[in-house]
Amino acid sequence: MRTPQMHLTMQLVGGTGIEPGAWRRPGVAADGYVNVDAAVRAAKAAERGKFDAVFFADTPAVVDDLSTRSPSWAPLEPVVVLTALARETERIGLVATSSTTFNHAYNVARQFRALDLVSGGRIGWNAVTTGRPQAALNYGAEVPSRGERYAIAEEFIASVMALWGSWPEGALLLDTENGRFADAERIQPVMVRGRHMFSRGPLGLPPSPQGQPVVFQAGGGGNGLALAGLYANGVYNSPFDIPSGAAHWQAVRRAAQAYGRDPDHMTVFNGIVTSVGSTEGEALQRRRELDELGDLESRVQYLGVQIGVPLDMGDLDKPVHKDLLRDAYAHPGDPRAPLALRLAKEGWTVRDVIAHGIIQYHPVAVGAPEQIADMLQHWFESGVGGGFTITPDAADGVEDFVDHVVPILQKRGLFRTEYEGTTLRDHLGIPYQNGLPAAHPA
Amino acid sequence: MRTPQMHLTMQLVGGTGIEPGAWRRPGVAADGYVNVDAAVRAAKAAERGKFDAVFFADTPAVVDDLSTRSPSWAPLEPVVVLTALARETERIGLVATSSTTFNHAYNVARQFRALDLVSGGRIGWNAVTTGRPQAALNYGAEVPSRGERYAIAEEFIASVMALWGSWPEGALLLDTENGRFADAERIQPVMVRGRHMFSRGPLGLPPSPQGQPVVFQAGGGGNGLALAGLYANGVYNSPFDIPSGAAHWQAVRRAAQAYGRDPDHMTVFNGIVTSVGSTEGEALQRRRELDELGDLESRVQYLGVQIGVPLDMGDLDKPVHKDLLRDAYAHPGDPRAPLALRLAKEGWTVRDVIAHGIIQYHPVAVGAPEQIADMLQHWFESGVGGGFTITPDAADGVEDFVDHVVPILQKRGLFRTEYEGTTLRDHLGIPYQNGLPAAHPA
């Protein structure tokens, strides 16, 4: 029997990397968020590394302070970026977020199916709800309550899937001899009807080689799990430790089962930030440089909050004083705080505690390639759901991961050495689907 | 002084050509409407021919009988197609329709700006209203009245332009040295407010080299002229004869003036279907073949209506009998009928009268390259608005026009031999614009 293998998605945040100072780093395109060549370069590297997919998160609003940083959660525009990548890559999956809160189901169905056709069946749709007031105001709307947002999302995804299914496999005939273009009898209005939406259909586009795009879900809570259980084959998760990651995977599997779907068709992708060096020291130096280019002062202050000690920029190059460490404690509200405290007690300088990546949206894997592979293997073998979203600190970290970490994972039998199929569903090991899941309650 | 030169847009309808039977023709990709390579091939050919732009019309609904023909007015999906073309061409403009009736202004602003960035400033937006019930039902909406649709369109275009202008030129600093990403003070909410829409902004994307996409307008009437006068630099028109084309151009110029805009910044593109052969006989043979592949029977019947004579498929290869021609008349409701009657009286067979293209959405230029160039020159010099939308009968007609008709126009000094600028605004001879027109009433 073959060793189980992990699934990997590459996420180049905002075209420059997840670190706020990444856009300033030499070797990173400062205009990466509007320069689609940066995304193409990352996707080609990830494809060389046999990644399952590249992923682009999105929020339809300006939510960052643009005076000091590149927009982090809104790339140029997801449909435009995925189309460019579809034309310039051949095998890798292409996944992007599109909101279920402020869109038309018909437009999402059409654009994502068009993407799936252009890419030969390599698209994924991360179907999220949007709760940011800045986004709502761009659409002249108010933010619906959380419960309402999820009720809309459920109908929205069902509508999109029903529209996708309105053109069945085999109905495109292209019979030039007899002048039969399509089996029009089989392409019929679907009359999607819900409390929040209505769409007649049909959609005028045939299925792709994988049928329809793979649906991904992100965000926790009972509502999120229900969405995942009903519709998703991929789930994005952001656990800070293995126990919470493993618990979420089990919850996702139970949710799929509860809706009559196969739990083995679910992959959870856990976000990990990576900072690769040829040695641990080099990786820490890389992060120190990135911290300098970002907002180091706020990180120093926040480390103080994490460990209950007043810190300022004057403390940067010293270990935390042992008198202060006596009263230090890990802030109970931040799951990253115990690691921060441990590093402080080990005697690292304030600068180096921060360089270990204790202030990031995801756990940070910092070190030599072997160390990063070890961490991923440990998490993987601890049952966190089969996959990881690799989120490099800065754009040049994409190639570092592909060239130095992937070969180790491959050597250990933990990751594919070649694509076996051509579609994203092939990469994820899930079957063709065109329309709502067979078990769907409607 | 240089001879005034015409402007040319290439429109490959539905990826296969405007003739209903085009998808069946050897040498045409039968799946052209879902195969973006067909659009890429056409755009590259048009770029070789120094066309101002390629154009894709769109209706967000299935409105054709798919049993016998390829969807004509809905390509794969405009944003996806334009992105692919942006990556695979370098100079030619890229124009697509997007409805103002069933979209969010913020989404159109964002997607078309992203396209404009990816293409280096080569995008045009044909801002239409949508009155088709099939489209409305896909969005769970009813079709607003014509007046209402135009009122919405006016606010919609103003909103999109205001969002485009919310990121002023020069506000993207990319100052890596000092960590100044953008001049955030200058990127502010626009608070677009109207009777039909609200959008806060700002849009998180800087202007392209041409500022913002060129707005095109299509569709006549007083409402359409007002939209053109307020916002457009390009107008699509479909006149069947020179006098009505010339009258529309004058009306468009007056509309621009009425709103304080420069009438010399308007170009009207008149739709012309082309069927090119090396001789007139070969061109007619080409059309006879396309008629056979399409719905010839309904064309025979319709010719009967045009000239007031009962015709059926049995009459196909004979001239219309002289006894019938005695009572024949040109149907007053169809401006193409006088030509049909004249051809019938000249003694062409029914098949050949039809092959002259008397039943098409646009006037048909059928013949040898010199004949087609003559027709375009005659129209151009009769003051119909400076431009033409060249709409080939079938996909292989794109290259025929580029290789055989364009050189004649160039030799006569009627069309450019090289691009002078890099943006669509350069090709059209209009200035940079980012935001609402200076003279806008709001």
From TrEMBL, chains A, B:
FMN binds at D58, T97, Y150. It comes from the Bacteria. The keyword Endoplasmic reticulum does not apply. InterPro entries: Diverse_substr_monoxygenases, Luciferase-like_dom, Luciferase-like_sf, NTA_MOA. It holds the Pfam family Bac_luciferase. GO terms for molecular function: monooxygenase activity; oxidoreductase activity, acting on paired donors, with incorporation or reduction of molecular oxygen. Keywords: Flavoprotein, FMN, Monooxygenase, Oxidoreductase. Residues 34-384 form the Luciferase-like domain. This is LLM class flavin-dependent oxidoreductase.
